[in-house]
Write a structure and sequence with these properties.
300 residues; transport; 7-stranded mixed sheet; two-stranded parallel sheet; alpha/beta; carnitine transmembrane transporter activity; disordered N terminus; ABC_Gly_betaine_transp_sub-bd; 11 helices; ABC-type glycine betaine transport system substrate-binding domain-containing protein; single chain; membrane
Length: 300
């Protein structure tokens, strides 16, 4: 269950926080921030996709770390991956901490590569998955879904239409001949709500999910094996900046290039932020206190 809302990121004393449902037409924010403002390297705008747990908590972690280092950070909520990359390429955003490669976000990186720069890999165990609750006993691989569409309402519950996982899932449905299913476009929040409801009544459901994600700590879930490899192998999560970011933010770029999180660290951060704290901000703060050595090394 998602016990805490994802978007409760509250500004600190030294932090400028701007939330918006979308980056409208990828235009400039009313609040000028980041290197484009010409106010020095300690102004940074970070984009975060609404409802993407790993993105949300890692962004909040860096927000708090940078605030303690005297940075003025604007966190801007974006509706989907498409406008995120458009804003980053155009310089409206300085950073995006959740670029999945080589497959999930490949189309965006290919499109905007000349306007972006890779600032390093911080997580290397990411996977895209087609997932069912563990109580669904007769389905263990994606191939097992074939012919069972009626059991699952004829749908695979997806997330935002611009997410790379949706493209991979469409290819997977075609590749496994799952003609009795349609891919339901919704949002991460709606997908999780559907999972919560089905799980509570022990009804069959199949969803698009990914690791790392806090849902695995809340439910007994089963990622379906993918004999054809159509969902892709393990991916790496990169930080991307707009072109020229590293030269205008040398100190921060150096910290980001050295930043790494293990699977266990990421799981504990998500759990603390999304399931244990009174808010995402409070949960991350508590995690930082419990992992002071790790936090100190982030800016060493």
């Amino acid at each position: 269950m998602r016990r805490k809302p994802f978007a409760r990121v509250v500004a600190g004393v030294a932090v400028a926080l701007t939330l918006s449902a979308t980056l409208a037409a990828c235009g400039k924010s009313k609040e000028v921030s980041g290197s484009a403002a010409g106010e020095g390297a300690k102004n940074v705008t970070i984009g975060v996709v609404q409802g993407w747990a790993d993105d949300q908590v890692v962004t909040e972690l860096w927000r708090q770390v940078l605030a303690k280092k005297g940075y003025h950070v604007t966190v801007r909520n974006i509706s989907d991956a498409g406008p995120m990359y458009t804003g980053l390429a155009g310089g409206d955003l300085d950073l995006y901490l959740d670029a999945w490669l080589p497959k999930t976000h490949k189309a965006y990186i290919d499109k905007y590569h000349s306007q972006l720069e890779d600032l390093g890999i911080w997580y290397d165990q990411a996977t895209l998955d087609i997932t069912v609750p563990a109580y669904v006993k007769d389905v263990n691989s994606i191939a097992d879904l074939k012919g069972k569409g009626s059991e699952f309402g004829g749908k695979i519950v997806g997330i935002e239409p611009g997410a790379g996982e949706m493209k991979a899932t469409k290819e997977t449905i075609q590749g496994y001949g799952l003609s009795d299913y349609t891919l339901q476009t919704s949002s991460t929040t709606a997908m999780l709500s559907a999972l919560k409801s089905a799980y509570a009544s022990k009804k069959p459901i199949v969803v698009t999910l990914w690791r790392p994600h806090w849902a695995y700590s809340q439910y007994e879930l089963k990622d379906l094996t993918d004999p054809k490899g159509l969902m892709g192998a393990k991916e790496k999560v990169h930080t991307y900046g707009h072109k020229g970011f590293a030269s205008s933010h040398r100190e921060l770029a150096g910290w980001l290039k050295n930043f790494r999180m293990t699977d266990a660290q990421m799981a504990s951060l998500e759990n603390a932020a999304l399931n244990k704290g009174t808010s995402v901000e409070a949960g991350v703060t508590n995690w930082m206190r419990a992992n002071a050595d790790f936090v100190e090394k982030m800016t060493a």
